[in-house]
Amino acid sequence: MLHSHLTTLNAVSLVLSTFEVQGWPAATLLAGSGICAADLSRADTRIATHQEMQVCANAVALQRDIGLSVGRRMHVSSYGMLGYALLTSATFGDALRLALRYPALLGTLFELSLKEDGEQVWFTAGDYRENPALTAFNVELCLASLKVICDDLLGHPLPLLGARFEHDAPDYRARYAECFDCPLQFQATTNAFAFDKHWLEQPLPLADAVTHHAMAERCRKQNTEFTGREAWLGRIRQLLAGQLHAAPGLDGLAVQMNCSARTLRRHLHELGCSYQELLDELRFERAKQLLAEDHWPIHRIAETLGFSETASFRHAFVRWSGVAPSRYRG
């Protein structure tokens, strides 16, 4: 999968601060992500999902239950204008429905929904499409953070009736009980937690109609800009993916995008990436696909990806994956 989705630095910042108190340097967590210290100091920085996932993979390698730890620290205030819009909503149900309207501003990797089942409502996170190796981590992060948001909105813990997880119960299952405080089910058909339906009508303690209207309008505008940038990045990836055998270069790509090379370079920098990084990512994804097909000799894969020499491809693949193409193929 090519990661064209953009997200904020919320999760990355919390991962770094979580490990900082344990003495781990930021460089260890940021390794391979393309995120630098300067990016962390800018509130409006947007990063690609694969960059966030690299940081998360580094974190999971150090601490397997880090998803729950980070999720419990993702308070509603972590979401900027959207957080204020949620807090000032009239009712708990209004706030949740507003959150579902702007998944890009939540930075979620799931399709979120509220599903009524008699007198209870399941807050469900489905349709996960990212790195399979990080599925459990992302489920933990998502549901733990959603529970914290619910608690923040109400001003007290939301009593849960149950929680379900598609993955197997981990050896740190006791941590789940701390986070959700309800009956747990693993190897379920959905990832979700349930609460009594009456809570949807609960007035929020910080409700303010004037502030809410202003924040909701700013969220609408920010979402339009955010999704527009996603579409723009997706178009770039689409163009490059069709020209891996003869990459157009930054200038050629700028012509195809109907902008100047300087403008393209600036936009890519704002998105936390560069032309070469995008090209490398696309080549790496395609290389893995072709290496999975035994009838493709390595020299042909190198040609298809635009490398003039097989050796150059081998060196690049080792840089991307840590192993030679022949070893990757097994």
Automatic annotation (TrEMBL):
Database matches in InterPro entries = AraC-type_N, Homeodomain-like_sf, HTH_AraC
Keywords (alphabetical) are: DNA-binding, Transcription, Transcription regulation
The yes or no answer to whether the keyword Glycoprotein is present is no
All residue ranges annotated as the HTH araC/xylS-type domain in the record: 234-330
List, alphabetically, the SMART domains matched. Answer: HTH_ARAC (SM00342)
Report the GO terms under cellular component.
cytosol
Per the UniProt record, one Pfam family is Arabinose_bd
- Entry's Gene Ontology molecular function annotations: DNA-binding transcription factor activity; transcription cis-regulatory region binding
Which PANTHER family does this UniProt record tie to the protein?
HTH-TYPE TRANSCRIPTIONAL REGULATOR GADX, HTH-TYPE TRANSCRIPTIONAL REGULATOR VQSM
Return the protein name: AraC family transcriptional regulator
Higher taxonomy: Bacteria, Pseudomonadati, Pseudomonadota, Gammaproteobacteria, Pseudomonadales
